[in-house]
Write a structure and sequence with these properties.
This protein is α/β, with parallel strands linked by helices and 495 residues long. It has helices spanning 7-15, 19-28, 38-54, 57-77, 81-93, 97-112, 121-134, 138-151, 156-173, 202-215, 228-238, 251-258, 264-276, 291-311, 364-369, 389-401, 423-435, 445-454, and strands at residues 188-193, 219-222, 242-247, 279-282, 316-322, 333-337, 354-361, 373-378, 381-386, 408-415, 441-444, 458-468, 471-481. The strands form two sheets. Strands 8-9-7-10-11-13-12 form a seven-stranded mixed β-sheet, sandwiched between helices. A six-stranded parallel β-sheet has the order 4-3-2-1-5-6, with helices on both faces.
């Protein structure tokens, strides 16, 4: 049996949403059989809780009950408020309200007696708030959670974890969740706009600055072309938010095509933003900037922003910069109107191409059922392609809802037509399908984020990387449709 990994490694996997990978690492190294270590038992409860949240019916209740037992066993060995409060909440979700109330009172007694102080002042008060909420004391819960937030006003990830569990508790007890909205972390932002804005256009900069401030952004996702993109990126950093760049081609190619023609000033500003970005994602398989790669990168950015918003229990907003003189459609879709000013001899046109979705599976009948054109057979896998990217996303959503038994895989690419799709991309899609388990749809990152852009309620889970043809492909599992999407008020699509 492999040597057990550091518990922090498994915890980090769970925090990123890699639930299957975390549980596999936990069980494969024998940790699931440990019965006398409170840290391991607490982690076991956490991993079972994550699985229960993805399950339904009797399996959901059973997993919550197993999570409650693991947490309770940890608290019995070493009395502590963290496993005990989780044992109480899991008991509620498993349908055992009497036991939940008993444990919640035990938590309050532990805290009042100076025990179970929590790993931080935030968690001490948040745990008290959770116990009070479980006992139906809304006023006390709100006061305690306000104290927790005051202890750590910038602990956004901790707050997101709290809000998620409080929402689940309140819904299980039939209580209002409206009061939690004001405590949510700052929204994520997806931005896009035109090239050809003068580098010294003060009016455009002021309008964009105001829009970014209005959004209240915590983290932003978008490209970095000369003009609107760079102006938004600069405003995002001035607002103290995290900048996540999503490019439709390798940085050198993108800079050469979409930045340098507009002048040295834009080029230096591009370099500065790249240096200060929290992350840079390049849409795989795109060697140059084309119409299709721009659209695919925009959808990927939107999906990433949506996914981050859901993980942070926040909202997703958008900023669009245009010269078409139109109004914003909703509070979460901010429109900034600017004037385009392109130098003579500089073109904003890009070569044509299309987005496409490849889907591979063993069931040939599936493609006919969903009006997908089969284009290849490789290693017993049938591969279909759709150049209607929204239709392909709809197919994936339906396959998830129908719990199709796979193996299936999806890959979002850019090509001019079916004949232009490379054998490498076909083989990559088949390889992912071969690596998936029954009941799971595998997807390259781009395909997973496209699905998330069109269907925010789609559940996606990172599985790790698949080394292939000199580059590693990030792989996701498309597992279930979330019960409710709380990321957006007033609409959930920006495309």
């Amino acid at each position: 049996m492999p040597e057990p990994p550091p518990l922090s490694r498994i915890v980090n996997l769970a925090r990123t949403g890699a639930i299957t990978q975390a549980w596999a690492m936990f069980t494969d190294t024998g940790l699931a059989d440990v019965i006398d270590d409170p840290k391991i038992l607490t982690l076991k409860g956490r991993l079972l809780k994550d699985q229960a949240r993805q399950a339904s019916g009797p399996m959901r209740a059973r997993l919550f009950l197993e999570a409650a037992q693991a947490y309770a066993d940890a608290a019995r060995i070493r009395p502590d408020s963290y496993p005990l409060i989780n044992a109480a909440a899991m008991s509620l979700f498993a349908g055992q309200q009497d036991h939940m109330r008993f444990l919640a009172r035990e938590v309050l007694g532990l805290l009042d007696g100076g025990g179970g102080v929590g790993e931080t002042p935030y968690w001490h008060e948040a745990t008290r708030a959770e116990a009070l909420l479980l006992l139906g004391d809304m006023e006390g819960a709100q006061a305690a959670l306000a104290a927790a937030v005051a202890n750590a006003p910038d602990a956004w990830e901790d707050r997101a974890t709290t809000i998620r569990q409080f929402r689940e508790i309140a819904e299980a007890l039939g209580l209002s969740v409206d009061w939690l909205a004001s405590l949510a972390p700052p929204p994520t932002l997806v931005f896009s706009g035109i090239m050809g804005i003068g580098s010294a256009d003060g009016s455009a900069q002021q309008g964009i600055e105001a829009a970014v401030q209005q959004s209240g952004v915590g983290s932003a996702y978008g490209a970095l072309a000369a003009g609107a993109d760079i102006l938004v990126a600069e405003a995002v950093l001035r607002a103290g938010a995290a900048l996540n760049i999503v490019l439709p081609a390798a940085p050198e190619a993108f800079r050469r095509q979409s930045v340098e023609p507009f002048g040295a000033d834009w080029s230096s500003r591009f370099d500065a933003m790249m240096d200060q970005a929290e992350s840079v994602t390049v849409v795989a398989g795109c060697n140059s900037v084309t119409d299709g790669s721009i659209k695919l990168a925009a959808l990927v950015a939107q999906g990433m922003a949506m996914d981050k918003a859901q993980r942070m229990q926040s909202r997703c907003t958008s900023i669009s910069i245009t010269d078409e003189r139109r109004d914003g459609a909703a509070a979460d879709n901010i429109i900034v109107n600017v004037d385009r000013s392109v130098q003579d001899g500089v073109s904003t046109e890009v070569p044509p191409s299309k987005m496409a979705m490849l889907i591979a599976g063993v069931d040939r009948q599936l493609f006919a059922r969903y009006d997908l054109a089969e284009m290849a057979i490789l290693h017993g896998m049938h591969v279909a392609a759709s150049f209607d990217i929204e239709h392909a996303a709809t197919v994936l959503a339906r396959l998830i809802e129908s719990r199709s038994t796979g193996p299936l895989a999806a890959n979002a690419i850019v090509a001019e037509n079916a004949h232009d799709i490379s054998d490498v991309e076909i083989a990559r899609t088949v390889r992912i399908a071969q690596s998936t388990t029954q009941g799971t749809i595998g997807a390259i990152m781009e395909a997973a984020m496209v699905l998330k852009a069109f269907y925010p309620e789609a559940g996606i889970e990172p599985l790790g990387e698949l080394p292939d043809q000199g580059r590693a492909s990030q792989i996701y599992a498309l597992r279930n449709m979330l019960r409710a999407s709380r990321t957006i008020a007033g609409g959930n699509r920006f495309v």
